[in-house]
Amino acid sequence: MKLKVYADRLSQPVRAVIIFCEVNGIEYEEIKVDLANREHLTPEFSEINPMQQLPAIVHGTFKLFESHAILIYLASSFPGVADHWYPDDVYKRSKIHSVLDWHHSNLRRGPITIVQNSILAPVFRRPLNPEAVAEGEKILSAALSKIESFWLDDNRPFLLGENQPSIADLSLVCDIMQVKLVGETDWNRLLGPYKKVQQWIENTRNATNPHFDELHKVLKELKEKLQN
Amino acid sequence: MKLKVYADRLSQPVRAVIIFCEVNGIEYEEIKVDLANREHLTPEFSEINPMQQLPAIVHGTFKLFESHAILIYLASSFPGVADHWYPDDVYKRSKIHSVLDWHHSNLRRGPITIVQNSILAPVFRRPLNPEAVAEGEKILSAALSKIESFWLDDNRPFLLGENQPSIADLSLVCDIMQVKLVGETDWNRLLGPYKKVQQWIENTRNATNPHFDELHKVLKELKEKLQN
């Protein structure tokens, strides 16, 4: 009963799920659903996920969508996933839920608003929208500032003060990485003020490499393709 | 070690948490944080929740914010909470996570956008914004349509096909109830097309009464106060 992951690596939550599988030795089949070609809107994919979004998984007869729910399912169902990803301890686990819930209404809205209204707009046949980009940058900065001053206080290596990452670190860092698409200059301008955030991204990358770099290659490739 | 719930009943996720406590016989102390008076922005409350949002709980030395994380913590930590609220079964539990995650980026944005830009605007010293209200109505309708056609397909009484509600039913229904603030005419216009959603709201109300009606009294009281 091999796990099927419906994926387009351009999607940041897709990358989080695939990195999680790779790091934890979970065998999976990656089924490409090309977002730019609107394959997520087809009747075939709607049978997998009626919400027409990526990622989605099928495991035997069990279907699931929403990346946080998928990460929790994988951590809970596959033997051999280390406890630090999604601890059994109810207090630690609750803190992870809290970060992930906060992520939805805060950080997540930053990178997606920035890239969809700038570099990715032509890919998805949308107009450029500098006002929306500015709004996205404000959301991103506010969220990074909260992460820096609250969750990464005391120079913790990861969000919850442990020495190894949880699914919350992976999810949030993959979302921030999407900002790489707008180029190094803007990345440095937007991330520059947040030294602890930068170190935390590096810690999460190191803890999940070589898979982290492998999965993020798509950003560099797309950026080069769009520039040519 | 009595649970402290930081609350303003005007907030829909606050109501979900308090109804959950009442229905499950969880003893709690309700500590009012008046949103209209900006008490959630004070240094005192920032010590409880640095994100300055409601609800938040303190249980002994353990602090937690984000209503979904709180509901899961309460269901996991307090003896006597029936399994249907947050089942031990990994498949059922994963479906609940999936609904709750989807809720963040979809349904939740509808009611809050509608009421904050119409009836609640004067309370929070914000201008009325009919364009934002229209956008909120679109988000709400799209979300209700998905709930009606997917989760409530086959005339299930609750979202996950069980005969008793989960924390997902409670969270989503409390959010929709906020639309009552704009009045019966608009409620009927917005909810009218979704017969299964209406029945599901009624099922959730019946399964949690008298606490459901008690907690929602605040909506009628505020509406009358604003009209006078």
Descriptive account of the structure:
Two copies of one chain form a homodimer. The mean pLDDT of chain A is 95. Chain A has a four-stranded mixed sheet with strand order 2-1-3-4, covered by helices on one side. Chain A folds into two domains: 3-83, Glutaredoxin, CATH 3.40.30; 87-227, Glutathione S-transferase Yfyf (Class Pi), Chain A, domain 2, CATH 1.20.1050.10. In chain A, α1 runs antiparallel to α10, α4 (90-105) packs parallel to α7 and α5 packs antiparallel against α6. Chain A has 228 residues and is of the alpha+beta class. Chain A has helices spanning 12-23, 43-48, 67-77, 90-105, 109-116, 130-151, 167-177, 184-191, 195-208, 211-227; strands at 3-7, 28-32, 56-59, 62-65. Chain A contains ten helices and four strands; from the N terminus they run βαβαββαααααααα. Chain A binds chain B through residues 50-51, 62, 64-69, 72-73, 76-77, 90-91, 93-95, 97-98, 100-102, 104-105, 108, 146, 149-150, and chain B through 50-51, 62, 64-69, 72-73, 76-77, 90-91, 93-95, 97-98, 100-102, 104-105, 108, 146, 149-150.
